[in-house]
């Protein structure tokens, strides 16, 4: 299968690229390699598009909201228009359930609305993805480096990278499912319980208070997450 993978050098993309290239021809497009989705040439003869490129991060979206519109919506629209007759799996987020909270969540909400106009697409509503090699500057990275400034009373559905990749592979094989779908562990963890040292608790209004993936649909396709709670 010829697969176009956008964001192949990103947190999820680089791990997915390793897994898929064993049995497929994977063509990567990434801004880190100078390929802007707003201007780059798209390859032809593609059987499947996996669209992971885009801006992530709630706090950063509050500082630069326009970047999230350009990168998550305008760039995606150009991709969807070009591959209008091709199946596309695209990265959405559990944040889209409450789009009023921050520009990142709003961009994913609009992205899903945009995708509805382009037929054969699947919106992968990723919950909080983590790995043994944590994303730099994010919660687990700061926790390991003892650099957390504060902790919240939020609960989160933490999705291990291996389970995330398993879910994507299931959606690659299932060519009939369309629309958005939750991808998570189906288990909720109190964030402050992962922190064992004396870190101040802060209320944050621009983030979702609680997240929990409804994985009923994914389970019906054979998804069975192995990591229900982070082990640090």
Write the layout of secondary structure elements.
Elements: E1 2-6, H1 13-20, E2 25-29, E3 48-51, H2 58-63, H3 65-82, E4 87-93, H4 103-115, E5 121-126, E6 128-130, H5 139-144, E7 155-156, E8 158-160, H6 161-173, E9 179-183, E10 189-190, H7 216-220
Parallel strand pairs: 1-2, 1-3, 3-4, 4-5, 5-9, 6-8
Antiparallel strand pairs: 7-10
Helix pairs in contact: 3-4
- Poorly predicted sequence stretches spanning 5 or more consecutive residues: none
Rg over C-alpha atoms, rounded to the nearest angstrom: 17 Å
Termini separation comes to 37 Å
Q: Considering DSSP H and I runs of 4 or more, what fraction of the residues is helical? A: 25-40%
Major β-sheet strand ordering: 2-1-3-4-5-9
CATH homologous superfamily grouping = NAD(P)-binding Rossmann-like Domain
Domain module count: 1
Proportion of residues in β-strands: 15-25%
Q: Major β-sheet, in short?
A: 6 strands, parallel
Named CATH topology: Rossmann fold
- Secondary-structure class: alpha/beta
Number of strands: 10
CATH architectural group: 3-Layer(aba) Sandwich
Mean pLDDT score: 95
**So what's the overall shape?**
globular
Order of helices and strands: EHEEHHEHEEHEEHEEH
């Amino acid at each position: 299968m010829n697969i176009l993978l956008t964001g192949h050098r990103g947190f999820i993309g680089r791990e997915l690229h390793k897994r898929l290239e064993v049995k497929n021809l994977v063509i990567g497009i990434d801004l880190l390699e100078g390929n802007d989705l707003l201007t780059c040439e798209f390859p032809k003869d593609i059987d499947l598009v996996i669209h992971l490129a885009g801006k992530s991060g709630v706090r950063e979206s509050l500082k630069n909201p326009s970047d999230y519109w350009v990168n998550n919506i305008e760039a995606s629209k150009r991709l969807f228009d070009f591959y209008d007759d091709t199946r596309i799996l695209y990265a959405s987020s559990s944040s889209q359930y409450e789009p009023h909270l921050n520009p990142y969540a709003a961009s994913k909400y609009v992205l899903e609305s945009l995708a509805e106009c382009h037929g054969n697409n699947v919106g992968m509503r990723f919950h909080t993805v983590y790995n043994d090699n944590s994303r730099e500057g994010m919660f687990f990275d700061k926790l390991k480096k003892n650099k957390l400034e504060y902790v919240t009373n939020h609960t989160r559905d933490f999705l291990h990278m291996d389970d995330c990749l398993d879910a994507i592979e299931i959606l690659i094989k299932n060519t009939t499912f369309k629309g958005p779908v939750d991808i998570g562990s189906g288990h909720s963890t109190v964030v402050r319980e992962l922190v064992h040292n004396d870190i101040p608790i802060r209320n944050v209004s621009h983030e979702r208070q609680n997240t929990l993936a409804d994985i009923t649909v994914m389970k019906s396709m054979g998804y069975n997450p192995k990591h229900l709670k982070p082990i640090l």
